[in-house]
Amino acid sequence: MTPRADIRVWTVSETKAGTLTQCLGVADFLHPNPYVVTVRKPFAWWKPQAYLRDLLVGRQPDLIVSCGGIAQSHTLAIAGLCRRRPLTVHLAGLKPEYEDRYDLAFVSRHDWTPEREAKPHIHPMIGVPHRVHPDEMEARREKARARFAPGGGRIATVLVGGPNKAYLYDEPTIGRLVETIRELAGDGWTVLVSTSRRSPPALQERLFAIGDERIVIWDRQGENPFRDYLAAADALLVTKDSVTMTCEALATGRPVYGFDLAHRPHGPYLEKFERFHADMSQTLGLTRRFEGALEPYDYSPPNESRRVAAMVSARLEAGRRVVSPA
Fold first, then answer.
1. CA distances to 39, 92, 109, 280 from 304, in Å
2. In 3-53, where do the E strands start and end?
3. Where exactly are the structural domains of the chain?
4. Torsion-angle region of residue 153: left (phi > 0), alpha (psi -120 to 50) or beta?
5. Which domain of life does this protein belong to (predicted)?
6. Which pLDDT value is given to residue 119?
7. CB atoms within 10 A of CB 122
8. Which of 155, 159, 189, 253 could form a disulfide with 301 if both were Cys (CB 3.0 to 4.6 A apart)?
9. At 92, is the secondary structure helix, strand, or coil?
């Protein structure tokens, strides 16, 4: 797909980086420079919003792509203020009061419910959209491998998140992860470790203390090598706390293994994550549970960002609405 400069695309997301990444994952295919709106609280008419000035004096959007529960009220308020109602698209499940007010919505399979089958404007998707794509990975691969393993050999990339409402990084979990990385290096892998802002300091300290030249850890200084870490990999190990990291890893087309973490007490967040991982591994055959070895296997990497963008583009071309204006 070629981004179009003849349409105006806005994204509306929460301040959480993941919601913006999803929006841009789709919007990047549709416009070379989407206008980005991030919000912290639900829309209220009496609260000034920085984007309202741009809405009134600038070119109004033809398309709004949103993600996050807080973004929904803002999106529909913006759409209602436009002279010509833009196409509204949400990535994730919608709140009941907004479900029939959006033009399109794309809901991850692990959040899908049977009653959505009766709503033609709501579609299932694999995982979540993101900004890592298979063609980019292939284009980067040769230079990335020469950078991190100039002598050749196998490269394992380890993507580490942090504790959330489903999983814990307790001491046994941290110890098991550090030992796994050490063992992979001992088995001859060059191990590239990417941590996140959520990663516990104790984990990062223990990783840097390993002192093995086969283990390369980004120190969070300078340019983030994340994309080269992905492109160079022969296999990937991803902690289970991030849906986005798992989906980004799958863009490589290389084996992706999920690393088990300690569970928080049973609840909806844990159920949601476990449904996602069961769907990706058992139903779709895209990932596998890590049980001590990174073995090769084949799959066709999904590209949901491109697929969703193509569906949105088709609706824009058709110029139709399936729901009444808000």
1. 25, 13, 12, 14
2. 9-14, 35-39
3. 9-130+305-318, 134-302
4. left
5. Bacteria
6. 95
7. 21
8. 253
9. coil
Three-state DSSP at 80 gives helix
DSSP notation for 123-190: EEESS---S--HHHHHHHHHHHHHHH-TT---EEEEE-----SSEE--HHHHHHHHHHHHHHHHTT-E
> pTM of the predicted model, to two decimals?
0.92
Summarised one tens digit per residue, pLDDT across range 38-85 is 999 999 988 888 898 888 887 899 999 999 999 999 999 999 999 999
Tokens 């000034």 belong to 48
Q: How far is 128 from 18, CA to CA, in rounded Å?
A: 10
Q: Which amino acid is at 265?
A: P
State the DSSP string of 231-287. Answer: HH-SEEEEETT-HHHHHHHHTT-S-EEEEP-EEPSSSHHHHHHHHHHHIIIIIS-S-
Q: Three-state DSSP class for 5?
A: coil
What is the CATH number assigned to the segment(s) 9-130+305-318? Answer: 3.40.50
DSSP-assigned beta bridge partners for residue 9: 63
Residue 261 CB partners (closer than 8 Å, separation 6+) = 167, 168, 169, 173, 239, 240, 241
Q: How far is CA 185 from the centre of its chain?
A: 28
In a 10 Å sphere around its CB, with 0-12 CB exposed, 13-18 middle and 19+ buried, how is residue 210 labelled? middle
Token pair, residue 323, equals 């729901």
Residue with tokens 């969070």: 220
What's the angle, vertex CA 112, arms to CA 107 and CA 115, rounded to 5?
110
Residues linked to residue 237 through DSSP beta bridges, in sequence order: 158, 257
Which has more confidence, 169 or 218? 169
CATH architecture of 134-302: 3-Layer(aba) Sandwich (3.40)
